[in-house]
Amino acid sequence: MADRVSASITIGGAVSRDQYQVLCALISDEALCTEWDGDQFTPDAHIEGEPLSLYAHEVSWGCFNALEQYCCVNGIAYHR
Questions:
Q1: Nearest 5 degrees, angle CA 55-CA 79-CA 2?
Q2: E strand intervals along the chain
Q3: Do residues 40 and 16 make contact, with C-beta atoms less than 8 angstroms apart?
Q4: What span, in angstroms and rounded, lies between the C-alpha atoms of 5 and 43?
Q5: Domains of the chain, earliest start first
Q6: How far, in Å, CA of 18 to CA of 40, rounded?
Q7: Are 74 and 68 in contact (CB under 8 A)?
Q8: How far is CA 64 from the centre of its chain?
Q9: Spatial CA neighbour of 76 closest among 24, 5, 28
Q10: Phi and psi based region of residue 49 (left: phi greater than 0; alpha: psi -120 to 50; beta: remaining)
Q11: Dihedral sign, Cα of residue 15, residue 10, residue 3, residue 59
Q12: Engineering a disulfide at 59: which of 7, 9, 46, 69 sits with its beta carbon 3.0 to 4.6 angstroms away?
């Protein structure tokens, strides 16, 4: 059984429209919110030119594996 903790991730940098669509799907899969105990992320919640800060409780090992891997592979800056 995995340890589960509260975790956050901030994603920044320039992304293409296609990359943003994939990021939105990955964020949705993780059920991430735009603030602690806030509303779940929706694509229109992001302000262009600003970093995207996301939050969740009960995250396995405190990692967002698929989201982080996608950012790494595509050179998108993030901080967990």
A1: 60
A2: 4-12, 52-60, 77-79
A3: no
A4: 25
A5: 4-79 (3.30.70.340)
A6: 21
A7: no
A8: 7
A9: 24
A10: left
A11: negative
A12: 7
Coil vs helix vs strand at 40: strand
Q: Is the pTM of this model over 0.85?
A: yes
The structure tokens listed for 61 are 């090992």
Strand 77-79 and strand 52-60: the pairing is unpaired
- Cβ contact 76:27 at 8 Å: no
